[in-house]
Amino acid sequence: MTYPNSTTVLHEQPGDWAGAQASGVTAGAGGLSLNAGAASGTLTSGTIRAAAFDELVPSWNAVTPAGGSVSVEVRTELTGGKWSRWFSFGTWSSGPSRASLDGQKDAAGQVLTDTLRLNAKAAAFQYRVTLRGAGTRVTLLAFTASDRARRAAGMGTPGDRAAWGREVRVPMRSQMIYPDGGPVWCSPTSVSMILAHWGRNVTVPDAARGTFDRVYDGTGNWPFNAAYAATQGMRAFITRLPSLAQAERFTAAGIPLAVSLGWKAGELPGAALPTSSGHLMVLTGFDAGGNPVLNDPAAPSDAGVRRTYPRAAFEKLWLTHSGGLSYVIAPPAHACPDRSHAGRLAGMEFPTVCPACARENRAEFTDSSVHDLTCGHCGARYCVFLRKQRFEVLFDLGTRALLDGYAREAVASFAAALERFFEFYVWAFTLERAANAEQEFGAALSGLEGTWRHVASQSERQLGMFALAYLLREGREPDFLTARGLGTDFRNRVIHRGALPSRAEVEAYAALVFALIDRLLTELGPGAAHAELAQEQVFASHLSALPDGVTAVFEEHPGMFRARRSGGWRPRRNCRPSLGWRRVRCRGSRASRARP
Q1: What backbone phi and psi angles, to 5 degrees, belong to 114?
Q2: Which of 104, 140, 193, 346 keeps 20 to 30 A from 396, CA to CA?
């Protein structure tokens, strides 16, 4: 989910954890779980790139039986390819031991209970999640990275009048009727209301107990509130929306949002409180004039909770105070706009047709190109294997972002596409060379994967590997690896220094990246098929582990490079003996069908 002010990364499918380093943890259809006999385990993600950010808020959904717990840490990439320390967001447990971690501050930034605030903008991060205790599982990890300077970038975006005059009926609950902490229980009260809407009747005091952070000494820890909602059977995460126009998509889909804002005296007409330095309430819809309708738990009684606030005033206070921070809480099977409109804005998702009911769903692109899905219409389970390389996906995302007016996001996608193509080239060259030496494919692929792990988080070393691969394959210096040839100065100015590029500048940069990749693909010729065969091996591994009743669907989407080259360099769907491999176990050519 990429917006003008933020990027939210959601990891919840097995393919999302492809390339991660795990110790004592297995990623499967049910999320992350401890290996049999392991008392604890850790998974460290690969490098995740995002538009320039200086704040990050994580959230997670976890199952923690008695004595179990989960910890989430994040580090960010600094200038020169170095990394910050690991910043911890404390320890989560469904029991009373949950706590954030104080005292984390250095030259890179600091943790403010639930928010990592950096002293300089970053464009990449990694996370590390630790599971403890038998039966502990993590089913979702979310990371919202945002740019404080662009918090209000989407303010005033015209709304969708079709969403006006519509409300989600959410039970009304006041936090003020509870004398033992009610006045500061806005967050758990909001969560309690949303849970009640979905049929989980949790009382406000119970929600407060379930979200209490004993170090923060309160119930307002944002990730803890999302994690608590997940213990009640919900899919819950934190995001930052750019405008009320985007929030309309959620309420129109039947999903109320808990939103965070603050105001001074007189800034929010009709407010239940005269002032607030930070308050959560539930956005339930919009009146006929487009003004937001909310369940404000600060009302003195349940009967007075429903309020309507002026649109412009509310949106300004919400965006400037918290950057549009919102809790998204809904049942896992409920169709959610984070998989639809948000994806269309930035191109992070693609449409796919359910093989059971033939209706459209949307899937978020994953690094592995494997997408385990549940149809939001009929509940059928199916898995989409997308035959498209990451550099192709990223370039197409950049094109869509540019067409939608997101210039900075487009630059980030084009830059990432070039980096991932250099990786693709290294893999193609290495596997081609091994095939010519009649090396067994599995052994060659394993050696390459192990070697790549050493440079997976260091872009400069990856560039060095590409330069050497090009020299060995073509017999000449890669003289295009200059600041001018790669558009490095423009890229750094936009991504690292926060410059706002013109559309013409972005188009010129996109043309440069496209021309370079197209040239190198031409030089690779049939050799590119070796890297694509590595993707087929990933597909084969996942296909063999699909549960009974899950339909496998293979899709190949058009894109800039495939349209340009008319498929000339793509391998055929069967594993080709002409590639020279002695033994290739590839099942990627299986037809789409339900497993028997």
Answers
A1: -125, 5
A2: 140
Structural domains in the chain, sorted by start: 1-150 (2.60.120.260), 161-330 (3.90.70.10), 391-579 (no CATH)
Q: How many CA atoms lie within 13 A of 215 on its CB side?
A: 16
Q: Is the pLDDT of residue 27 over 50?
A: yes
What is the pLDDT, as a whole number, of residue 593?
31
Long-range CB pairs of 545-548, under 8 A, 24+ apart, other chains included: 546/383, 546/595, 547/29, 547/381, 547/595, 548/595, 548/596
Amino acid at 524: L
- Write the single-letter amino acid at 449: E
DSSP 250-280: HHHTT--EEEEEEE-TTSSTT-SSS-EEEEE
Calpha distance 211→181 (Å, rounded): 13
Which DSSP string corresponds to 453-486? HTTTT-HHHHHHHHHHHHHHHHSS--TT-SHHHH
Distance CA 415, CA 394 (A): 9
**Integer Cα distance of 145 and 238 in angstroms:** 11
Q: What is the CA radius of gyration of the chain?
A: 25
- Pair 191, 197: CB distance under 8 Å: no
pLDDT tens-digit readout, 336-392: 775 433 333 334 677 788 899 888 777 878 777 888 888 877 888 899 998 888 899
Name the burial class of residue 482, with classes exposed (0-12), middle (13-18) and buried (19+) by CB atoms within 10 angstroms of its CB.
exposed
Taking only the tens place, the pLDDT of each residue in 515-547 is 999 999 999 999 998 988 888 888 888 888 888
Backbone angles phi, psi at 482, to 5 degrees: -120, 165
pLDDT, residue 571, reads 35
pTM: 0.62
* Torsion of the alpha carbons at 441, 443, 444 and 446, rounded to the nearest 10: 120
Q: How many CA atoms lie within 13 A of 19 on its CB side?
A: 23
Q: In angstroms, rounded to a whole number, what is the distance separating the alpha carbons of residues 4 and 482? A: 30
Rounded alpha-carbon distances, angstroms, from residue 292 to 245, 337, 363, 524: 10, 18, 29, 55
Asked if 191 contacts 207 with a C-beta cutoff of 8 angstroms, the reply is yes
Token pair of 178 as six digits: 């509870």
Q: Please say whether the beta carbons of 354 and 194 come within 8 A.
A: no
What are the CA-CA distances from residue 585 to residues 447, 527, 582, 588 (Å)? 17, 19, 10, 9
Instruction: Give the number of other CB atoms < 10 A from CB of residue 347.
Output: 24
- Whether pLDDT at 582 is above 60: no
Distance separating alpha carbons of residues 131 and 326, to the nearest angstrom: 26
Q: Determine the Cα–Cα distance for residues 21 and 23; give it in Å rounded to an integer.
A: 7
Tokens of 37: 């006999």
Rounded-to-integer distance, Cα 159 and Cα 440, Å: 58
